Amino acid sequence: MNFQVAAKRLMPGFESRLLLRRIVNFPRDAFETISGRRDPLIPPHGLWFVGGEQNYAAVNEEFMQYFVQLGGLKPVDHVLDVGCGIGVTAAPLTKFLSSEGSYDGFDIVRLGVHWATKHITRRFPNFRFVHSDVFNKHYNPHGKLDPEHFPFPYEDSKFDFVFLKSVFTHLRPTAVQHYLHEVRRVLKPTGSCLVTAFLLNECSRALIQSARSSLELTHDMGEYFVLDPKFPETAVGLHQHCFKEWYEAAGLALVPPIHYGSWCGRDQYMSYQDVIVLRPAD
After folding, report:
1. Comparing C-alpha atoms, which of 205, 216, 229, 169 is closest to residue 2?
2. Residue 4 is assigned to a structural domain of this protein
3. Residues ≥6 apart with Cβ < 8 Å to 271
4. How many domains does the chain have?
5. For the whole model, what pTM was predicted?
6. What is the pLDDT tens value at each position of the chain, 282 positions in all?
7. Distance separating alpha carbons of residues 221 and 241, to the nearest angstrom
8. How far is CA 182 from CA 59, 146, 147, 162, 280, in A?
9. How many Cα atoms occupy the beta-carbon half-sphere of 170 within 13 Å?
10. Which domain holds residue 90?
């Protein structure tokens, strides 16, 4: 059984998993805080409620290149981070964006937004974080907002660049479609959007079936496949032809090519997840 699946089945409650992580990492976090060895813009180990801590510096450097080279990000741009977590991707942007640029991020986990506001916004006032009380079975089970209908908390045509890093990999199709419409609404006509996903096509499906994939997305849910039907949002694979229909219906167009990832066992790839760049179709 996949580690992610086993962990969520053993401890399905987000708060219980986070508490365990904080207890286990307390000695290490206390030492790094006292000794001054921890980067003040990076959260302590016990507060990482999403994966990727071990390689975050390399991943941040990797995605900064994608933002600039693929998404056309500029220092003066107004940036939106959908699913900002605890602000890890915001940290390198503090060194890139000028005082004329700005960063806004929102997330459904209040703890992450609170930490990022306290430690990042305090140093960089043009970086702002907002908590959106969106329901999620695992991360925000008491959320009052429906992920398929809630509006992003920003006005129309506000942002030059929007990114959703490892968001669509945890959303069901109806929510993905809604998010794409909201991205188009808040994006300037000249803006661009970078997203990551697990796209299912002839190649990736064949690799999954031959057991080469790192994710066993074998449970058919109709328009999508999942790693664990009991906890669908753990990892979601979207049919590529459906995803194309959804972004086109939202008024977005692909900036080719799709940059396929290694997640399914490809020999040639750019990143781990598939990277897609979109722009307004107008």
Report:
1. 216
2. no
3. 62, 66, 196, 259, 261, 262
4. 1
5. 0.91
6. 555 555 555 555 677 777 788 888 888 888 888 888 778 888 888 888 766 677 888 999 999 999 999 999 999 999 999 999 999 999 999 999 999 999 999 999 999 999 999 999 999 999 999 999 999 877 888 899 999 999 999 999 999 999 999 999 999 999 999 999 999 999 999 999 999 999 999 999 999 999 999 999 999 998 899 999 988 888 999 999 999 999 999 999 999 999 999 999 999 999 999 999 999 997
7. 16
8. 26, 14, 11, 11, 12
9. 17
10. 53-280
Does any domain span residue 32? Answer: no
Where residue 194 sits, what CATH number does that domain have? 3.40.50.150
Q: What type of residue is 239?
A: H
Check: CB of residue 88 under 8 Å from CB of residue 59. no
Instruction: Report yes or no on 138 lying in a domain.
Output: yes
Cβ partners under 8 Å of residue 42, min gap 6 = 56, 88, 91
17 occurs within a structural domain: no
